[in-house]
Structure formats: structure tokens, C-alpha cells
Amino acid sequence: MSFGTYPTESIYDEIFDTSGQPREICTSFVRRLESIPDGELEQRQRAADLIMRDMGITFAVYGHEAGTEKVWPCDLVPRIIDGEEWAQVEQGLKQRITALNLFIDDIYNDQKIIKDGIIPEQLIRSSSTFQKACVGFRPPAGVWCHISGIDLVRNHDGRIYVLEDNLRCPSGVSYVLENREVMKRTFPHVFEGMAVAPIEGYPERLLEALLSCAPPHAPEPTAVVLSPGIYNSAYFEHTFLAQQMGVELVQPTDLIVSDGYVHMRTTRGLKRVDVIYRRIDDEFLDPACFRSDSCLGVEDLMQVYFEGRVTLANAPGTGVADDKAVYAFVPEIISYYLGEDPILNNVPTYVCSNDKERDYVIGHLDELVVKPTNESGGYGILMGPQSTKAERDRYAEEIRANPRNYIAQPMLKLSTVPTLIGGKLQPRHVDLRPFVLCGEDVFVLPGGLTRVALREGSMVVNSSQGGGSKDTWVLRKTNGKHDPASAIPSSQSQEQGSPSC
User: Fold this and answer.
1) With respect to CATH, is domain 216-309 assigned 3.40.50.720?
2) Is the domain 348-411 a CATH 3.40.50.150 member?
3) Are 96 and 145 in contact (CB under 8 A)?
4) Which residues make beta-bridge pairs with 263?
5) Which helix (H) or strand (E) holds 45?
6) % helix / strand / coil in the chain, to the nearest 5?
7) Cis link prior to 314 (omega < 30° from 0)?
8) Burial class for 444, CB neighbours closer than 10 Å (0-12, 13-18, 19+)
9) How far apart are CA 210 and CA 273, in angstroms?
10) Residues of the chain with CATH 3.30.1490.270
11) How many angstroms separate the CA atoms of 440 and 143, rounded?
């Protein structure tokens, strides 16, 4: 398979440097890929697509004219990350989640960060994800964000930035695991001799993190995954994680509050539940506490939660920390709670509720990316340099009408990875969502979900907006050499035990 005239001059490519030579960590992989006969990569890609379809690895896109259920798209050329660079990223993610967890706890209790003038009180009070019902509460084990997905991007200067924090119900980790499984089935020999950090132990680590935060009254706690049901866009992930952890997948109608505890209905009667990994948004969890019209909630669930008799993961109220306006203050949050400089930098961000910054944004809409503070999935974004004047004028009106709802950032030129498009390897822009678990300790899954914008020139990588994905390889080294102990030699290889922090 030839890379032909693969362009690298004007972009940062994860595989090739600007001279067109493979980066040191990627040299062996590139040579192996180039040894593949013409047409074989396409055949293996078609085989991978069929495996995804036959295994039912899907996602949903609401309102799509061609139907909602889509086969998960996985391109067979992986993203490769140097293990030494990853070690720094891992430390930065641990630092960030530790600080954000302290921030959430403070916001709902002492509010020292507000009293000390680090963050404006109105910014927190006006956040649509701030839950007044959680004021004065501390969850079991003091953990608010048990599972986090932190979106990272590499700019054309080669530096990695945090693009946004996802702390409510972050999705995508099931596709990380399935991408790796499909790669091992369809392309096993590319792993031979490559020290790819294993990821298969994630479900065990997730269950350990959840159970470690169980209420103290439960010496042998029972955990469940709570899903809104089959029509949710991430339902495949809900079923996958429940199966992999060996716990029950339940819907709201399967749960009931009785005698001060949460129970699930079973064929043998009621069984107490101690930990709920919930994949339902805050406002729908309990009609007695949040939205009274919710058909997805469990009546009085929050009362049991506030009394410390059940753990909800992630804790309700964590969304206040992934508000994109609050994101702009994360460097100050890290410094305030940890006394450290951030290891991972934010993208420079303009908060439109600030008069001076709002005026700058409106005057430079053709240069900036404008985002709603609490949307996700790539919805509601204005890509200023690619927009029309009419679109910019409309956003200017919306920003003036509701400035708290918008932030703006410079448009980064995301790094690229070779991607099979029309039978040729072409550069396509990518981001990365690593997953972080917080229980007795903080664990970062090596790599994460690499999302790729399949349309030429597009920077929008979300699957709901036509993006795809790639397997992500963290190549580990020992004394400057590949560590053969961590290599995956064939499609039959399985990880032995759980990965360590």
C-alpha cells in the first residue's frame, strides 16, 4: 500500500513529519503498511465494516433522513501516540480531573473559590447545569465525576490542548474497545512486535471504580447500568458496558424505591441496588426532584441518594464543571486547588458574558469558532472562517440576546492522520477523547477514542455530524526500545489482567 504523494507540508500529521518521513515512533508501522499489496487494505476495510455490522456495533443519529441506526465507522489506519508523550498527557488528565472534582465539591458546599474571587458567582448561578438540589451534599467517597471524557486536540504547532471537558454522561468508550477488537480480527499482523498498550481491562477498572464509591453500608455492593432504553443514541454502549462488567442493564421501570433503598425488580423479587451507573441526564432522573414530567425517572431516587443509601455515577450536578464558560477558568481552578500550573493547556477562550470579550467576539466572528456553553455533539457551532455573512449576523444577534450561552475560540487547524478515502490514503483531521476513571485512585485508559472528520477539510469530527473513528495506539517503550511484553502478536491475543495506572 503506497502513501503516494501524501501531503504533509502545511499540516501537523500524526504519522509523517513535514518532510514526508515517518515519525520515529511510526516508522515500523509505515513500513509494514507499505508492504501490503495494493487493494488489500481496501479489502480489510470492507471486512471490518462487515464485522461492525454483524456484531451490531451501531450508534444513532436523531432526525437523519436515511434512518437513525448507523454502523459505527472505523478506519483501519490507527492513530499512534508515543508512550513518553502519553505519560505527560496522562499526568495532565489526572491533574485536571482531581482539580475539577475538588471544584465541584466546593461549589456545592463551601464555595471558597467564589468567596476568594477566582470565579464570578453569577457565572455559576446562571449555569443551566448547576443543580440547586445538590447544595450542601457530598457524595459517597467524595467522588463527583467517576467517569470523564476529556476532548484533546493537537494544533498545527504540534501542541496538545484540552478542547472541552465531558463530565455528565460521557460516551464513546465502548467504541474504543470495539475498534481494537475489530482491528485485531481484520488486521492482526500489523500488531506483531508493536508494543501497543492494552485497553481490554477497562470494564474491570470501571467496575472497581464504581464499587469503591459504594455507600459504606454495603460491604458487597450491587451495581447496575441505568439506560433510558433502546431509542437512546448510546444504547449500544449501555448494553456493552453492562455485559462487559457483568452487571444488570436496567431501565427506569426496573427500579423502585422501597424501605428507604433502591431496588430492582427481578424474577425472584426485589434486589437492592447500591451503585447506579446512570446514562440519563440529571433533569430526567427523578420526577420528584427535577422535571415532574419525566417518564425516564425513578420516583424518590434523589431522596435515597441524598440520604447516602445509593451512589449515582456520575453524581448529579457534575455538569457545572463542563459548562464551556466554566472551562475558561480551569487553569485558575487547577492553580487554586492544587497550587500547580496546568500540565495541559486550554484553547484560548472568550466568554461572551464578559462585556469586553463579547465585543471582541462579535467584531471577529469571521475568525472564531462560536459554541453554545451547554450543547454537545457538534450542534449549534458557528465555524466562523467557513461561515456566510448571514450566518455571522444571526449569531451576533443571538450572542447579544443571550451572551451567557456562548463562548468563542480561535479556529485550530487540527492534526491529521492518514485515512482510507476512495481507495487512497488521505489526511483527515482528528481529535482524541481519553477516558478517566475516579474511585480510590485516578486511572486513565491508554489512548482513547480518536474521532476523524471524514469530509475533506472538515474540522467537525462528531459521529452525529458524519465523522468516523480510529483505533488509538499508545506505543510503550522500555529503555528506549519497544516493550515486547506489551505487544499484541495476533488476533487471538488477549490482555492478561487489568492495566495499571
Assistant:
1) no
2) no
3) no
4) 256, 272
5) helix 40-54
6) 35, 25, 45
7) yes
8) buried
9) 12
10) 348-411
11) 9
Domain with CATH 3.40.50.11290 in the chain: 216-309
Residue 68: predicted pLDDT: 64
For strands 406-410 and 368-372, give the pairing.
Answer: antiparallel
pLDDT, tens only, 455-497: 888 888 877 667 899 999 999 764 444 443 344 333 333 333 3
| Cα 496 to Cα 501: distance, rounded to the nearest angstrom | 15
Burial 318-349 (b: 16+ CB within 10 A, else e): bbbbbbbbbbbbbbebbebbeeeebbbebbeb
For 132, 141, 145, the CA distances from 311, given in Å and listed in that order, are 18, 9, 12
C-alpha dihedral over 278, 172, 71, 1, to 10 degrees? Answer: -170
**CA distances (Å), origin 327, targets 263, 275, 413:** 37, 29, 20
Cell numbers that stand for 128 in this block: 443551566
User: Distances in Å between the alpha carbon of 61 and those of 144, 233, 248, 296, 428?
Assistant: 29, 7, 26, 20, 22
**Dihedral-angle region of residue 370 (phi above 0 means left; psi in -120 to 50 means alpha; beta otherwise):** beta
Q: How far, rounded to the nearest angstrom, does the alpha carbon of residue 243 sit from its chain's CA centroid?
A: 20
178 touches 55 (CB < 8 A): yes
Kindly report the pTM of this predicted structure.
Answer: 0.91
Each residue of 413-432: pLDDT tens digit? 999 999 999 889 999 999 99
Minimal CA–CA distance to 245: which of 210, 279, 269? 210
Q: Please tell me the total number of residues recorded for the chain in this structure.
A: 501
Are the beta carbons of 343 and 129 closer than 8 angstroms? Answer: no
